[in-house]
Amino acid sequence: MVVLSAIMEDPKAYGRIIRDETGSFLRIAEAKDCSPSELAVNEINTGIYAFDNQKLFAYSKLLKNDNAQNEYYITDLVDIFRQHGQRVKAVVIKDSDEAMGINDRVELYQASKWLQRKINYQWMRNGVTIIEPEMTFIGPDVKIGMDTIIYPNTFIEGKTVIGSGNTIRTGCYILNSAIGDRNIIDNARITDSRIGNDTRLGPWLHLRMNCLIHDGNRIGNFVEFKHTEFGGHSNCAHLTYCGDATIGKHVNLGCGMVTVNYDGVNKWHTTIEDDTFIGCNVNLIAPVTVKKGAVVAAGTTVTMDVDQGDMAIGRVRQENKTGYGIKYMDKEKIK
Q1: CA–CA separation, 129 vs 306, rounded Å?
Q2: Whole-model pTM?
Q3: What is the phi/psi pair of residue 326, to 5°?
Q4: What is the pLDDT of residues 27-46, one digit of tens each?
Q5: Separation of alpha carbons 216 and 193, rounded Å
Q6: I need a labelling partner for 119 at 20 to 30 A (CA). Which of 24, 193, 277, 311 fits?
Q7: Catalytic member of 206, 238, 250, 269
Q8: Annotation marks residue 238 as catalytic
């Protein structure tokens, strides 16, 4: 039988590890059953044990409840094992905080802070720069490459893998995603997605549901991608929604472009091929394809495919009415 013990400055109500003059482990004394000299011992029982299962089941039948609590103490197994000629040993844990008890929300917070520091300090020793470790939250299964810089108020969770040389700025939340090398990500929410290399993402960006962002892309502020593949060296600067879309290389998506992918019942796919230019305030009514080298003029609602090299324009022709601006602005005076 092996017991995991810890050295505590304040043992409180923990059971004490009692040893003889040679340091050999004798027994565990519960705090309420301790003598004054035993209460002075600062080596405590963490409640973590290793047993031979067959011997555990056999000897547990010998437990008795003749103690102050009138309870059956599993710790009495130490004496029982010794009485039957079995080896018992108490091993001291290096960091006592690792075995701290959690009995309320304060202690839960203290344990969480311990784990946060342990994870963050380890990544810093491995070559990751964390600007403020107390305000950075990294899950235990996350992997991060060297020379990545992580700013405060960042949460990286799940099975996320981040490459080297990245800059993760304030306000990022990244979950179950793979991020390549040398990316700059600012105030972005990224879940279940993959990012290539040398991209610039954010601020205030949302990528979700298996997005694939290829190398060299620029995605700016107030953009949401959902289940979208964005080809390399393309641009989407701001105020855009792309859902269920495949977008090629060297594509420009203008401000306010929307893939209209939901008809109230089904989700439909949009394809934008390489070297296309989509102007501002464009609606692409899916299913639809904009083929290679095509241009969609600003303000257009696209309801059918745009062939290679063509330009789609679908807006009302402008008409200027002489003097109507003055009349409109003076209407308050007429009242």
Answers
A1: 47
A2: 0.84
A3: -65, -45
A4: 898 888 888 999 999 999 99
A5: 16
A6: 193
A7: 238
A8: yes
